Amino acid sequence: MQFRVDRTGGIPAYVQLAGQVREALRLGWLKPGDRLPTVRDAVAASGVNPNTVLKAYRQLEFEGLVEARQGAGTFVKASLRSVDPEVMTDLRDHLAHWVLRAREAGMNDEGARALLGAVLDDKDTEGER
């Protein structure tokens, strides 16, 4: 897992880090038993203060998603995955194809995110969820 922090937005760095762990859990990139990067490694990758990483890890621990083991590190305790891995792979492939089509049509990433968000928020697709 490689952390990244967007300093241009108004979202605190610890919230971004915790969100990235949650995202990795939802997508199945992290599973129970996996070790999160050490604070030192997370600091080196993201350029944030060690206390910021610790705050993110404490938040995740409070949520019951990770557990700190003295002298061993921080480990994933729970999963947020709600879809079968094969289904997730199929959905990812379809979405990757859609993104490729959108880019070929001249849509930039910001436009694609806006369109995806609009579809997710669309009341007409609620019954299909």
From TrEMBL:
Keyword Lyase in record: no
Database matches in SMART domains: HTH_GNTR
Alphabetized InterPro entries for the sequence: Tscrpt_reg_HTH_GntR (IPR000524), WH-like_DNA-bd_sf (IPR036388), WH_DNA-bd_sf (IPR036390)
Residue ranges of domain HTH gntR-type in the record: 11-79
GO molecular function: DNA binding; DNA-binding transcription factor activity
Keywords noted in UniProt: DNA-binding, Transcription, Transcription regulation
Matching Gene3D superfamilies: Winged helix-like DNA-binding domain superfamily/Winged helix DNA-binding domain
Coiled-coil intervals, chain numbering: none
SUPFAM superfamilies attached to this UniProt entry: Winged helix' DNA-binding domain (SSF46785)
Pfam families listed in its UniProt record: GntR
Protein's UniProt name: GntR family transcriptional regulator
Organism: Solihabitans fulvus
Lineage start: Bacteria, Bacillati, Actinomycetota, Actinomycetes, Pseudonocardiales
